[in-house]
Amino acid sequence: MSTYLILKHLHMTTAYLTVALFALRLLLDAVGKPAWRQTPLRWIPHANDTILLVAAISLLVAGSWNPLTQGWLLGKILLLLGYIAAGLFALKVTVSRPVRVVAAVLALLQVSAIFHLAMAKPVIF
Ligand code: HEM
C-alpha cells in the first residue's frame, strides 16, 4: 500500500474515532457519569485528534492539495474550527445544560458537514 493510502486510512480511522469518542463523552455526561474526566478518556480523544490532524497535514503535502484552490478543503478547515469550539462548550461542566446541548448539536452538525465535504469533494470555487 502506498504511503498516501496509509495516511488516508489513518486519517479516516481517526476521523471516525473522533466522532465516536465525542459521542461517548456526551453520552456519559448525559447519563450522569462525568467521572470519565478522571479516566484515560480525558486524554485519548486529544491524542486521537492530534493524529487526525497530523495525518490531514501529511495528506495535504503528499497529495499536493491546496485549500486555497479546493473550496471543500477550506470548508473542512473552517468547520473543524467550529467543531473544536462547539465541542469545548459541549463538554464544559461549568456551562449550563441548555447551552451544552445546543453546542453538542452544533458540533455534531459541523462534523457531519466535514464528512460530507470529505466524501463528496464538491466544487465550491
Ligand atoms: C474532524 C476533522 C476531519 C474529519 C472528520 C475528516 C474526515 C475525512 C474523511 C472521512 C476522508 C475520506 C473521504 C473519502 O472517502 O475519500 C477525508 C479525506 C481527506 N481529508 Fe479529512 N477530515 C477532517 C479534517 C481534515 C483537515 C483539517 C484536513 C486538511 C487540513 C483534511 C484533509 C483531507 C484530505 C486532503 C483528504 C482527501 C484524501 C483523498 O481523497 O485522497 N481533513 N477526511
Residues in β-strands, percent: under 5%
Instruction: Report the biggest beta sheet as strand number plus sense, adding barrel if it closes.
Output: none
Q: Count the strands?
A: 0
Could you tell me which ligands this complex binds, including any ions or cofactors?
Answer: protoporphyrin IX containing FE
**Rough shape?**
globular
* Overall tally of structural domains: 2
The average pLDDT value, as a whole number, equals 98
The whole-angstrom Rg is 16 Å
Spell out the helices and strands N to C: HHHH
* Count of alpha/pi helices: 4
Class per helix and strand makeup: mainly alpha
Unreliable residue runs: none
Distance between the termini: 32 Å
**Helicity, as a percent range:** over 70%
Architecture overview:
With 125 residues, this protein is mainly α. It folds into two domains: 1-65; 66-125. It has four helices and no strands. The relative contact order is 0.13. The model has no long low-confidence stretch (mean pLDDT 98). The structure holds protoporphyrin IX containing FE. Protoporphyrin IX containing FE (HEM) is lined by residues 8, 11-12, 15, 18, 56-57, 59-60, 63, 65, 73, 76-77, 80, 83, 111, 114-115, 118-119. The chain crosses the membrane at residues 6-28, 49-66, 72-91, 98-119. InterPro entries: SirB. It comes from Marinobacter adhaerens.
